[in-house]
Structures are given as C-alpha cells and as structure tokens.
Amino acid sequence: MVQENKYMNHPASAPHRSLKERQREERAELILQAAEAVLTEKGYYETSMDEIAARVGVAKGTIYLHYPSKEDLVVALFEREITAFRQTVEQVAAEDAPARARMETILRHAYADLGSERRQLFMSLHTNISVRTTVFEKKLALRDQMTLMADAIKAILEDGKRSGEFDPAIPTSIMLMTFLGLISRRGYDQFLSGEQLSPEQVVAAIGRIYFQGIARPKSVQESGA
Question: Which of 13, 50, 204, 211 sits in a 20 to 30 Å window from 20, CA-based?
Fold first, then answer.
C-alpha cells in the first residue's frame, strides 16, 4: 500500500496549464537536453549558445528568451537535477516501507550514476569558478528544492524513531544533517573517485556506518523504553 504523498502537493505541480505554457516548458527541456549533450562533449568553455540552438533547431534568440546566459543555462541544469532528486525522495518518503529501507533507497538513488558521463559533467561544472559564482547568486531558488527534500527525509527519520528503528535520543536534526552530508557526494568526488568502487559498494559501506550509528540501542529495545 502507498501512503498519500503529502510532499507532492505543491502549486508548481498543478495540472491546469495552458498549451502555450506546456510548449514553453517542452522547449526549455529540449534546450537543457541539448546543452547537457554539448557540455558533455565539449566542456563548459568550448560550449556555445549557437551550437545549442542548432542542436535544438531554433534561433539563438529563442535560447536567450529562456536562459539569458550560458551560466543561467547551467544553473537550470543544476536545478533540474536537484528537482528530479527531490521528487524521487518525496516518492520514497510516501512509500509504506520501514524507515531504514526508505533511507537505503534514497542512498542508492544518490549514488546510482557514479562514473557516468553525466556525473563527470556535473563534477566539472561544480568546480568551475564562473559557474559556482552564478549558482551562489541564485542559491535561493535551489535552496527551496533542498528544503523540500530535507523535510521529506526528516519525516522518514521521525517515522523511524516512532517505529523503534532509530535512536530517539539522537536529535532528528543531527540525523538529517549527517545524512544530507552523505548524499551530497562531495566527499566521494574528493576522496574516493580514484578508488574504483561500485555504487553498490559505496552505498553498502555508507549505509553500514550511518544506520549502525542511528539505530536504537538494543538495551533500550529490550527494556521497552
């Protein structure tokens, strides 16, 4: 059975959109797909708005109507990535499954694309100073997505406390902060990218450390406290 997903009733997902709005969204998505392909092939500095427009089959001016600059386009790629992951987290949060199982599912999604071209692209963009500056300037838009995702994960952790899976003595905020740090994958990029570990190995090791740390102590379980 699937619980009602209280996290997905956002105004942005309202079904009633005009044809013009849908066409604009579809064109924007086509632009992002083309931009991602060109960026993957050529890198940030060698990517031009002209080539992206040619790939989509529209005038360059049409690109600028959606994204005023290449930096804005890259920010939109990051926002799309975060939004997609947030939606996945919300779907997992609504499942009728033990809290730990849901958290493990989120971990697997977070590390599923290790070693892929897309992952390499976002790693390179994240370390680009120009891109990072633009992302920082527009961080409020990205922060909204992160807040919604954090709320869904927090709800799972609180479910785990109520069910007796997780230690009620550990503040939920600490559990949440630690988990968000684990799924950011910055540590992987810095320390583990050369280790040739599979996503399954990374998730298993992280999960073992994290879930053993927040598990409700057996002494508490046995006492019934």
Answer: 50
Q: Tens digit of pLDDT for each residue in 70-109? A: 888 888 888 888 889 999 999 999 999 999 999 999 999 9
pLDDT value at position 4? 46
Cα 124 from Cα 44, distance rounded (Å): 8
For the segment 200-206, the average pLDDT, to the nearest whole number, is 89
Q: Is 198 helix (H, G, I), strand (E, B) or coil?
A: coil
Tokens of 129: 């100073």
| Chain centroid, CA 82 distance in Å | 4
Residues pairing with 166 in the sheet: 215
How open is the CA angle 88-82-157, to the nearest 5 degrees? 50
Residues in Cβ contact with 36 at an 8 Å cutoff, skipping those fewer than 6 apart: 77, 118, 121
Tokens of 68: 């005023």
Q: Do residues 165 and 215 make contact, with C-beta atoms less than 8 angstroms apart?
A: yes
> Tokens standing for 164?
């007796």
**pLDDT for the residue 125:** 78
What pTM did the predictor assign? 0.76
What span, in angstroms and rounded, lies between the C-alpha atoms of 207 and 179?
Answer: 10
Distance CA 108, CA 190 (A): 19
Is the separation of the CB atoms in 52 and 33 below 8 Å? no
Strand partners, 152: none
With tokens 């810095």, the residue in question is 190
Nearest 10 degrees: Cα torsion 213, 219, 222, 225: -90
